[in-house]
Hints:
Distance between the termini: 82 Å
Strand content: 5-15%
Strand order of the largest sheet: 2-1-13-12-9-3-8-7-4-6-5
Structural class: alpha/beta
Helix content: 40-55%
Largest sheet: 11 strands, mixed
Number of helices: 22
Amino acid sequence: MSHAHRHATGPAPFSPLLAGTLALLALAGVVGEAAAQGGAAIHHWHHRPPLDPLALALELADGRTRWPPTATPILIAVGAAAALAIGLVVVLRTRRPATGADRAARLLGVGRSALSVSLQNARATAARFGVEQPGLPIAKAIAGGQRLYATWEDMQCDIWGPRKGKSSSRAIPTVLAAPGAAFATSNKPDLYAATRGLREREGRVWNFDPEQLAAGEPDWWWNPLTYVTSDRRALELTDAFVGAYRDPDARPDPFFDPAGQELVSHLLRAAALAERPITQAFLWSTRPNDDEPARILEHHGLELAAASVLDHVHAPFEQRGGVFGTARQILSFLRDPDITRWVTRDGPAHRRPQLDLAKFVTSSDTLYLHSKEGQGSSAGLVTALAMALCDAGEQLAKRSPGGRLAVPLVGVLDEAANICRWRQLPDLYSHYGSRGIPLLTLLQSWSQGAQVWGQTGMRKLWGASNVRVYGGGAAEEEFLSDLEKLIGEYNRLVASPSAVRAPGGGSTSTSWQLTPTPILTVADLAALPRDRIIVMPSGSPSVLAEPVYWWNTGQAQLIRESIATYDPPQVLARRHTQPAQEAPWTTPA
């Protein structure tokens, strides 16, 4: 069976050449009939030519009907118009040939079957929540050409292979569509440079960039210990740091790793209670004999936590060294002054504002979180800040009518598996949708997410997403096989020829049967073209769509201007040409 006909709903009994010939003959008959009838009308003939093109041809051949003189120019004009139309169609199809995936578009969600991701549904949801903007853009459907949108209660998860255009068609439009506060994580400056110029028109821009990926300056600071208001939150902050320093494939020590993490959580809790900077927790991890954290915890009524710290302090030398050594590894990123100046107050307070997350979620500000991945990077702080920001949004939502934010807090977790290894994210995903915190998580592969959250956690994250998007570029057969089943099948009419032997000779017969056939096979999904994606809404058929890149939107010129202004080389060049100024975090002489 040929690939060209694999997505047909029935058999193809004619060859393309025969079908084309018959179509041209039919067109010629229609044009000739129209010319003859038009000429007869102009000459006011009482005996009109027959309306059947075949009968007209036969009567013209045997002389029973005459050809009207004015029919010839009509025939030439109509024929030329038809030829021009056919030529235009051929040119357009040649410039943009249909892909194998396009042939499946009519078998997928289209029209009313794609209502859950339609502009109409997004507007209705926005009106119900009192939000002016309809929703977050997704893509453009191939069949029907309608724009697809996620509503303000939809959580999204995308899997795109490397360099497939997920930032330019998903991350950038999502940040720009935020009606209020927004935040985004990234390990590259492209998202920041493309959107900052437009977002700073809405509110202040906060660029967390300790590793200078986007040429950010520490002209503000955030205190991670403001999140540590309980033992549970101390453990969550510790877990964010652990996820950044430990390789996902590493096998943790069954004793020292849990004990070291518990110790870090107690040190963070003690530093928060004593109103010390977060660097104090690292200093304590270098002093195994120092019982000051235990005394602070006991002073605030946390006797059990204090006893746990003292147990490590008074443990045998080798055991104590292993536990405190693990704690130092977890907090080792705090040794880097380029990182700590973003999370400590080192200079007059009025010179550098402190980021207040409770105020941020009520604003139209934008927070960009940049980091590299790996041990020693600021990825743990990126995770912690994203986690604390979403928690601030959740706390405000609990106090708001309907239990959700009046203006949604939009988050884009780009490179989430590399720089934002938020372990609790799969458990919180569906919950945040009901709180007005729509998140878009972007991954490069299924395995990348499973490496961070495990197979169960990744399935939970994928399943909790109201909108799932596959952007191509995957080579994992198991994942693609699951997509093939998720997209579904159709009944294909297949011909089965058979030979029948008889005494006087033989004959052949053909039987037809409906055969379930995948709409898109694993091979189709692996070879999905760059300008095609699969949008899979919950409770609705999948939709074949075309990404809408930022340069094809009405904001293209403004985005180009933003890139020209905030692309890191341009920023650094301007700094080198400006007079040197005193750093805003240093104390004046």
